[in-house]
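Input (structure):
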């Protein structure tokens, strides 16, 4: 079975082809980041319009890369949610109608399940059960994954997601949207002993996160420096970036450690845009080494949004016989625990 995957939930148009025998055989990505950077965040209407322009040409390119034609495609998987409604509708309309015209099944895929399963595209794949830390621009969640489709939400952010906190703090430091990568680069030159930012909610039981207070603490530190000396110099910016990153990574580590202890799981999967963060990856690797466990990540390019994870998640469900009906339906809000494996 060859599955064409289409991802258009936010600001990346991702297209990929997953083959049951050969694995991933093509993937193409167009990022709209430059277009949205001027506005300091994603402009939904611009995102939808750009997906309209890019989706079909990228499908053609992916088919060319794999030396296939549309007639070789056995099923189409598209992101049906969660995400921006207009952006989702572009991928869903194209995916659903293309499948209809080809006479093949189509399936609306959950974007976060795509992120969750992205490490399965690597050579070293996790087996079930495992604990998952999903950290993206829109979500921060700890999930107990007993088997495919059996997801128990243990904790999540009650306000900003981890990626959102990186982006908002980066903005305060004058970095372009999305600021995660640039902020972690800036942090490399920072001194970790200069500021002590809070590790929110770590002294309370449970696995929920809160990151909005951390953003306020950073804003206050910036304000204080501005009051004292007019503006931040390069070293101040690096110090704040370093201490902010340390605080957010520590917070995630504390909650993950707690969840590992409670669930007694030995395998950890980390996915979503923030899983590309080097400090988080290194610290989690150290944690799992100490616990005699294993940690699994997607390759860096599949941490952020992409079509490969949608083609793969779609393949897993299509293989179980799941399909979507002819209606073009999207769910901008869609709790992952509503997913079933049958
Ligand atoms: O998964 P993703 O592409 O989109 C959503 O589904 O939300 O995640 C994007 C988020 C952005 O907030 C971005 O700043 C963050 O991931 N991000 C990072 C890094 N790379 C991307 N955050 C911290 N460190 C990074 N290296
Ligand atoms: Zn995502």
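Output (sequence):
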């Amino acid at each position: 079975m060859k599955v064409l995957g289409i991802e258009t939930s936010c600001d990346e148009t991702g297209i990929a082809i997953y083959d049951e025998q050969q694995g991933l055989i093509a993937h193409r990505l167009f990022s709209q980041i430059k277009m949205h950077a001027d506005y300091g965040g994603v402009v939904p209407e611009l995102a939808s319009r750009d997906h309209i322009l890019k989706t079909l040409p990228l499908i053609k390119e992916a088919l060319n890369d794999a030396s296939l034609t549309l007639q070789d495609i056995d099923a189409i998987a598209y992101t049906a949610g969660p995400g921006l409604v207009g952006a989702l509708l572009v991928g869903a309309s194209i995916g659903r109608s293309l499948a209809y015209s080809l006479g093949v099944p189509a399936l609306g895929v959950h974007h976060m399940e795509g992120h969750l399963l992205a490490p399965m595209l690597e050579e070293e794949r996790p087996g079930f059960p495992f604990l998952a830390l999903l950290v993206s621009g829109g979500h921060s969640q700890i999930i107990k994954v007993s088997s495919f489709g059996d997801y128990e939400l243990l904790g999540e952010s009650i306000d900003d997601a981890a990626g959102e906190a990186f982006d908002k703090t980066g903005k305060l430091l004058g970095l372009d949207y999305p600021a995660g990568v640039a902020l972690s680069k800036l942090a490399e030159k920072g001194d970790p002993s200069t500021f002590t930012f809070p590790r929110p909610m770590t002294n309370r039981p449970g696995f929920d996160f809160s990151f909005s207070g951390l953003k306020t603490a950073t804003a206050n530190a910036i304000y204080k420096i501005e009051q004292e000396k007019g503006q931040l110099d390069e070293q101040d910016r690096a110090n704040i970036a370093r201490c902010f990153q340390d605080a957010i990574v520590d917070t995630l580590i504390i909650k993950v450690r707690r969840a590992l202890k409670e669930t007694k799981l030995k395998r950890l999967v980390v996915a979503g845009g923030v899983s590309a963060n080097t400090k988080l990856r290194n610290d989690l690797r150290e944690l799992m080494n100490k616990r005699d466990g294993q940690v699994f990540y997607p390759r860096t390019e599949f941490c952020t949004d992409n079509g490969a994870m949608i083609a793969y998640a779609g393949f897993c469900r299509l293989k179980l016989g799941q399909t979507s009906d002819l209606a073009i339906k999207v769910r901008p809000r869609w709790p992952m625990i509503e997913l079933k494996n049958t």
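Notes: Residues 155 and 208 are 4 Å apart (CA to CA). The chain has a mean pLDDT of 97.
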